[in-house]
Design goal:
Number of strands: 0
Order of helices and strands: HHHHHHHHHHHHHHHHHHHHH
Radius of gyration: 22 Å
Number of helices: 21
Helix content: over 70%
Distance between the termini: 33 Å
Structural class: mainly alpha
Shape: globular
Largest sheet: none
């Protein structure tokens, strides 16, 4: 599955869930209603088309031209908007990112001035924040820092300068919260931790004013993760519990699972094994209630069983329990999307540390070498810091030839 296919799939799911929300079965029936017998002569059952929609949305397939035309007709969008084409040119991630570099939204906001905005601008903002999240899947913080904050500022300007109904105002506030979360994440990945924290706080305020507890939880949890990462274990655990409270017992299962995982991670960083283990169990239980991701907020698209497994393995690595961590990491990394270079490099770093803790220095060195190769051209402070953690953990094994070679290469570099 290519990055382009995954991005197109996520767009199709986003369109289905916001126009208004349709299940895949409902979407299949609506597409059939728009089709002539000549367009869909071979599909006898809605179930067949439902299965195809699932494959398109997960990025396994790209819809053929006849299905693209039906999507555009049903949703009232152009093929470029839905499938990332520019005229007859193939989909290009770089072209999609040009939208952020010079996009049309800031110009539209200038034209709006103090005028009234409605659902069109809300839809624009929603599409742009999701495109930014998808870009972050395949690019690092250093590559996205400027466009991310440009988009955030544009959303804030809509709230401050335009007029709108109360409902539109709430949606704009929530979208400011979403932009703040991804911009804060990107700033943290670029090593700008103070800027990231300030941005998360902006998003938390916006989410609370919008009355969106799930989004507030996501932002507080992101801040808790960063705080634990840079050394504030006690503060991070308090923030993680605050995120759990903000989500509440009625939040979507995946939102509760993520909140519990933030508690587990902060506890693991604080070396509180009992709290971490209990929180991991709660995260698994909450995720198990979810069934499918349908109905979950769009910003939780990335949280699947594999990501939850990686989170659990990282917690066990921090707790120095390699016999639990290594099998989990080996299992999920064997099928991980290699287009997500930064994430793959980060997760390999935890595997290398766990292997070192398991007294397997040769395997740890091989894993660390792969991690360093992947991250060599990635503009991410997180990967650079994790590479140093791995090298320091391997120094006690410097008499092992594979480790010595790795350390020498790192020193030369």
């Amino acid at each position: 599955m290519s990055a382009e296919e995954k991005i197109i799939g996520a767009r199709l799911r986003e369109a289905r869930e916001s126009t208004p929300y349709w299940t895949r079965g409902e979407m299949a029936r609506l597409l059939r209603d728009k089709a002539t017998p000549e367009e869909l002569p071979h599909i006898a059952h809605v179930n067949d088309l439902t299965d195809m929609i699932k494959q398109w949305e997960t990025g396994n397939w790209i819809p053929r031209p006849r299905y693209r035309a039906l999507y555009c007709r049903l949703l009232g969008k152009t093929e470029g908007e839905l499938f990332g084409t520019r005229g007859d040119a193939p989909f290009s991630l770089d072209a999609d990112l040009d939208l952020f570099a010079q996009g049309d939204l800031p110009a539209r906001i200038d034209a709006i001035g103090g005028g009234r905005v409605g659902s069109g601008v809300v839809a624009d903002l929603s599409a742009r924040v999701h495109a930014l999240r998808l870009a972050d899947d395949v690019l690092a913080g250093g590559d996205l820092l400027a466009p991310a904050f440009r988009e955030l500022r544009a959303a804030v300007r809509v709230h401050e300068e335009a007029t709108y109904t109360e409902d539109v105002g709430r949606k704009v506030l929530a979208l400011i919260g979403e932009f703040a979360q991804i911009a804060g994440w990107i700033a943290g990945d670029a090593g700008q931790y103070r800027r990231a924290a300030d941005t998360y706080h902006l998003g938390i305020d916006a989410a609370r004013e919008a009355g969106d507890g799930t989004l507030a939880s996501y932002l507080i949890g992101s801040l808790a993760y960063q705080t634990s990462y840079i050394g504030g274990a006690g503060e991070a655990l308090a923030l993680a519990y605050e995120a759990l409270d903000a989500a509440g017992p009625d939040a979507a299962p995946r939102a509760r699972a993520l909140a519990w995982d933030r508690v587990a991670w902060a506890a693991a960083r604080a070396q509180d094994a009992q709290t971490a283990t209990r929180a991991l169990g709660e995260a698994r239980a909450a995720f198990g209630e979810g069934g499918t991701a349908e109905g979950d907020p769009a910003y939780l698209y990335w949280l699947d069983a594999g990501e939850l497994q990686i989170m659990e393995a990282r917690a066990y690595t921090e707790l120095r329990r390699p016999l639990r961590a290594v099998p989990l990491l080996v299992d999920v990394l064997g099928r991980y999307d290699t287009t997500h270079t930064r994430e793959l490099a980060l997760y390999l770093s935890w595997l290398a540390v766990a292997l070192a803790d398991a007294n397997e220095p040769e395997q740890a060195a091989a894993t660390a070498s792969r991690m360093r190769e992947l991250s060599a051209d990635v503009a991410s402070e997180r990967t650079a810091e994790r590479a140093n953690v791995v090298l320091n953990r391997l120094k006690p094994f410097a008499d092992v030839p594979a480790v010595r070679a790795l350390l020498n290469n790192a020193q030369d570099a």
